[in-house]
Amino acid sequence: MTKIVCVLYDDPIDGYPKSYARDAIPEIKVYPDGQTTPTPKAIDFIPGQMLGSVSGELGLRRYLESLGHTLVVTSDKDGENSRLDQELHDAEIVISQPFWPAYLTAERIAKAPKLKLALTAGIGSDHVDLQAAMENNITVAEITYCNSISVAEHVVMMILSLVRNYIPSYQWVVKGGWNIADCVARSYDLEGMEVGTVAAGRIGLGVLRRLKPFDVKLHYTDRHRLPTAVEQELNLTWHPNVESMVRVCDVVTINCPLHPETEHMFDEAMLAKMKRGAYIINTARGKICDRDAIAHALESGQLSGYAGDVWFPQPAPKDHPWRSMPHHGMTPHISGTSLSAQARYAAGVREVLECWFEGRPIRNEYLVVDAGKLAGVGAHSYSEGDATGGSEEAAKFKQ
Ligand code: NDP
């Protein structure tokens, strides 16, 4: 008998949905690089329905209880004596989504002597102290590729929204105005601009491919270079480091994981190297940017706009400066949890759990930490160490 604790975001304020805007979602079987979408033996949910909130339970309850396991689902994850803290002492598996992360700090890991698997229902396991996971022989896995294209679509939407000044223009309509000059005083065409991505992994490359038809000049920097054929196909300029790329870009999109090497990569010094009036779109992780430096750069005009859906910590406190800074297009962390993405990562979680309970290996591409070291996607894309510092501030959201 295993105890599984699953931390999910709250249901909609009007209650768990009784109906949906669309009747079905397209079935995707293979990702762009040939990797198959999750292949569980069965699922107990209807793809396209809400799975990521507490009542959705990632569609796991029937399956886990049929095997005699205990499933605890909660959204109460922060602050003194949260439900998560109460349940950790005998939990073997903790499942969490980056959108509403259960920060598994070294202190929490110390309170969970039975913990064997920290499973991310999504991509990005920086909410787990990976160093502590390695030292305590906890396997960390995520559902690689499940929402990479969801995010790539969101990035393109946000680039266009900022450059064309969509959000303030929409607000003029809602306010009953027809203020064309107000709307266009900050509105430009994307065509011809220099657009660069920090990292050209699954999301970064997806963004580059989607932007190609906009006739922009595309740049990237990454620890590993893309194949020459891809560089030629997309007419990409590769940069050996972030500094070199940001000097020439009008738009920078950040698509690398958060780990000690990338934490606060966009600080005051990096922002000063950017072109005046550049835009940043960050759907990777809030902590890759220095919170106050971003707000100052928008106030001074060094940046024309900043958009994204990732914050630190999450949920962001009500007084987080990114809620009120000028020219931002922030949303809560949503890009990777569309109903379409939820179906894929819920199926991926089911696949990993089936492997775990049947003693079969978890797909290598899902592994971040295994047998005390970085493994699978973790060995390729992360670095050792911990990026959870300061996460206790998430408790401020409740105040
Ligand atoms: P991938 O693993 O496919 O890509 C990550 C890329 O980042 C790799 O190409 C890796 O390079 C590169 N990278 C790592 N460190 C650095 C560095 N120091 N400098 C430059 N490049 C670096 O992951 P995805 O593209 O699928 O996802 C990327 C991140 O996006 C996730 O880790 C997560 O934080 C975030 N994300 C956000 C979501 C949302 O809802 N907003 C949803 C999904 C993901 P290499 O492997 O070549 O070393």
Automatic annotation (TrEMBL):
Domain D-isomer specific 2-hydroxyacid dehydrogenase catalytic stretches: 65-364
GO MF assignments: formate dehydrogenase (NAD+) activity; NAD binding; oxidoreductase activity, acting on the CH-OH group of donors, NAD or NADP as acceptor
Site entry: Important for catalytic activity: 285, 333
Localisation per UniProt entry: Cytoplasm
Purpose of the protein: Catalyzes the NAD(+)-dependent oxidation of formate to carbon dioxide. Formate oxidation is the final step in the methanol oxidation pathway in methylotrophic microorganisms. Has a role in the detoxification of exogenous formate in non-methylotrophic organisms.
Keywords: Cytoplasm, NAD, Oxidoreductase
Protein source organism: Methylobacter tundripaludum (strain ATCC BAA-1195 / DSM 17260 / SV96)
Main localization (coarse): cytoplasm
Catalysis performed (reactions): formate + NAD(+) = CO2 + NADH
Amino-acid positions noted as binding NAD(+) in the UniProt annotation, renumbered to this chain: 148, 202-203, 222, 257-261, 283, 309, 333-336, 381
UniProt name for this protein: Formate dehydrogenase
EC code: 1.17.1.9
KW Cell membrane (keyword) present: no
Quaternary assembly: Homodimer.
GO cellular component, one term: cytoplasm
Keyword NAD tagged: yes
GO terms under biological process: formate catabolic process
Pfam family of the protein (one): 2-Hacid_dh
